[in-house]
Design a protein that fits this description.
This protein is an all-alpha fold. About 70% of the residues lie in helices and about 0% in strands. The chain has one domain: Tetracycline Repressor, domain 2 (Orthogonal Bundle), CATH 1.10.357.10.
Length: about 90
């Protein structure tokens, strides 16, 4: 959190300068993003399956857009879900 959130916040501030990010809270958005990605989205911490985790990723994408920090692309979502599927990072849906 101490290492990655400031990097993301700096990127968001740069995006704010060029107009690609519209949030008034780049630091806070970066911290919330990191918390959600590292804890709330983690399927192993919540014992959830692939579909529910994908839904949470889509919610994260939507939330970041609403906050004015559109940093979660469809390509990123695909890579994350593909990676976790390959390494068995999901709990069984059954």
């Amino acid at each position: 959190m101490k290492k990655d959130a400031p990097i993301i916040a700096r990127i968001m501030m740069e995006g704010k300068e060029d107009g690609s990010i519209t949030t008034d809270f780049p630091i806070e958005c970066a911290e919330v993003f990191m918390l959600l990605v590292n804890i709330w989205i983690n399927p192993l911490l919540f014992g959830r399956g692939h579909e529910e985790t994908v839904n949470r990723l889509h919610f994260l994408q939507h939330m970041m857009r609403v906050l004015g920090a559109d940093i979660v692309s469809d390509q990123l979502l695909h890579k994350i879900t593909e990676r976790h599927s390959d390494i068995g990072g999901y709990c069984s849906d059954e």
